[in-house]
């Protein structure tokens, strides 16, 4: 006979989203009993793993897809401002957790790394300059620098200029020294280590197989231990599905109406990586450029400084790959088993209207190592094939809904707020804190008002806009920079 344990909250998936929500709920309701269920042998093994994501600390300082240009030439910056606001909340939360001893020294998960954008060609240079002029007027972007001078750009990032000739084509760059590199794997491990210390149960090697409503409105979560310990089940008042690409599959199994109509399109990635000391010593920045026509936002080329487990490397990519799996360690049947009558026509419409994406994926799959390094040479002209090795990155499940392929993150929650899950990719981990804040407002409407004083202890500007309050913004950003030891 299977024993049914009763808890307040079940978190499905051991990534940064579950770790963040679990930490919030433990701080706000220390009397609640929380259980996390992870199908792999440890937490942070999929999208939260440091080698599976960009680690950019997405704050729209360098990512051009957050400032789209309309056909008439105007540049829209509202999304960039919103994402930067969101990342400031993450910084405040992490600062508070460092002060409380929940997180280790800041250098174990976050490091100062300037964020740059580099473009080539007259049209792209004009766009970047217009983007800079608009953002420079915003409080959160006031320190951004712009240059078309090869000598200045060489000081910022020598690898961009070595063997590049200005006479070949115009180029320009922006730089924000306050950018960061974030090891979300280390951050996730530290958050779960604290929660385990606080006696929160974390079941690894455990796969959720079924979700069903009980007569009293709670959720019965049935699981199976993947190492042969047999089935089990737990009953919870609230369930969060933070299972990356498998979130949709589990939400579909729950039967909630809100999950109907959604589908996912899997896109994998690869990096070129080097730890060659001579190269690493010349590059201390995250440099983003323009995406290839037809490429999804996650495939915007970038030359990144990465610090993982205290060791610095440089990555370039990602290069898109294709697999029917929704997770790196998922199932080859994922793309098929998601199909329902409610979503098949929407997915077929996406396939029919995204031919450029299909062409892009085919071209990426055909690239040899030399051709991938050729792409790198567009940013780093001096790159040599032998210095770079190929590394398999993470697997993403892009959201399809209402006939459109979407590239953001979406929270799906039941009407009564008893279950919620997260779909999508970018900006993902960097905005885990604001995403979970919004989720708690939706799913815990009766508690959120009483939680606000504690939330303001953890996030002093909770509920306020920084971009509209220059003095508060400067004070807040300087405070978190000091707390997180982010002086460049």
Question: Would you spell out the secondary-structure blueprint of this structure?
Answer:
Blueprint: E1 4-12, H1 16-28, E2 34-37, H2 78-100, E3 110-112, E4 115-120, H3 122-136, E5 145-147, H4 150-156, H5 158-161, E6 171-176, E7 180-182, H6 184-197, E8 201-203, E9 206-213, E10 219-225, E11 230-241, H7 247-254, E12 262-274, H8 277-280, E13 286-288, E14 302-308, E15 311-321, H9 334-337, H10 344-353, H11 355-365, H12 369-379, E16 389-401, E17 404-406, E18 409-413, E19 419-424, H13 432-443, H14 448-458, H15 470-483
Parallel strand pairs: 1-2, 1-11, 2-8, 4-13, 11-19
Antiparallel strand pairs: 3-7, 4-6, 5-6, 9-10, 10-11, 12-15, 12-16, 13-14, 14-15, 16-17, 18-19
Helix pairs in contact: 1-6, 1-13, 2-15
Task: Describe this entry's structure for a reader.
By secondary structure, this protein is of the alpha+beta class. It has one domain: 3-Layer(bba) Sandwich (FAD/NAD(P)-binding domain). 33% of the residues lie in helices and 26% in strands. The chain contains 15 helices and 19 strands. The strands form 3 sheets. It has a 9-stranded mixed sheet, with helices on both faces. Strands 1, 2, 8, 9, 10, 11, 18 and 19 form an 8-stranded mixed sheet that branches. α1 runs parallel beside α6 and α2 crosses α15. The radius of gyration is 22 Å and the shape is globular.
């Amino acid at each position: 006979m299977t024993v049914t344990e009763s808890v307040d909250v079940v978190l499905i998936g051991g990534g940064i989203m579950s770790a963040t929500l679990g930490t919030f709920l433990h701080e706000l309701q220390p009397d609640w009993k929380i259980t996390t269920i992870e199908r792999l042998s440890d937490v942070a093994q999929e999208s939260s793993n440091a080698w599976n994501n960009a680690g950019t600390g997405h704050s729209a300082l360098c990512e051009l897809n957050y400032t789209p240009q309309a056909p008439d030439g105007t540049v829209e910056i509202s999304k960039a401002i919103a994402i930067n606001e969101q990342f400031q909340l993450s910084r405040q939360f992490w600062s508070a957790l460092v002060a409380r001893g929940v997180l280790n020294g800041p250098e174990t998960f976050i490091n100062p790394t300037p964020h740059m954008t580099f473009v080539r060609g007259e049209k792209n240079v004009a766009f970047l300059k217009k983007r800079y002029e608009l953002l420079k007027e915003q409080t959160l972007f006031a320190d951004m620098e712009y240059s078309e001078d090869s000598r200045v750009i060489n000081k910022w990032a020598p690898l961009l200029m070595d063997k590049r000739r200005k006479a070949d084509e115009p180029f320009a760059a922006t730089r924000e020294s306050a950018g960061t590199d974030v090891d979300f794997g280390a951050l996730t491990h530290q958050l779960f280590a604290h929660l385990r210390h606080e006696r929160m149960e974390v079941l690894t090697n455990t796969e959720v197989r079924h979700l069903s409503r009980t007569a009293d409105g709670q959720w019965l979560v049935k699981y199976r231990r993947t190492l042969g310990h047999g089935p089990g089940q737990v009953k919870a008042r609230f369930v969060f599905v933070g299972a990356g690409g498998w979130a949709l599959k589990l939400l579909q199994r729950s039967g909630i109406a809100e999950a109907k109509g959604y589908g996912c399109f899997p896109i994998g990635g690869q990096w070129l990586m080097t730890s060659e000391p001579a190269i690493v010593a010349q590059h201390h920045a995250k440099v983003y450029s323009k995406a290839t026509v037809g490429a999804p936002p996650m495939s915007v080329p970038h030359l990144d400084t990465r610090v993982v487990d205290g060791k610095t490397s440089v990555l370039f990519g990602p290069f898109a790959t294709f697999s029917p799996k929704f997770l790196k360690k998922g199932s080859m049947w994922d793309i098929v088993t998601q199909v329902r009558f409610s979503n098949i026509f929407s997915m077929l419409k996406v396939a029919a209207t995204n031919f450029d994406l299909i062409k892009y994926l085919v071209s990426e799959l055909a690239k040899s190592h030399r051709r991938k390094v050729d792409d790198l040479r567009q940013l780093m002209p001096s790159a040599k094939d032998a210095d770079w090795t190929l590394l398999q990155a993470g697997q993403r499940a892009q959201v399809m809904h209402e006939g459109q392929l979407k590239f953001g993150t979406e929270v799906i929650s039941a009407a009564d707020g008893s279950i919620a899950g997260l779909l999508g990719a970018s900006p993902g981990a960097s905005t885990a804190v604001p995403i979970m804040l919004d989720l708690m407002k939706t799913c815990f409407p009766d508690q959120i008002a009483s939680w606000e004083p504690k939330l303001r202890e953890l996030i002093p500007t909770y509920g306020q806009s920084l971009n509209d309050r220059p003095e508060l913004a400067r004070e807040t950003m300087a405070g978190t920079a000091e707390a997180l030891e982010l002086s460049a």
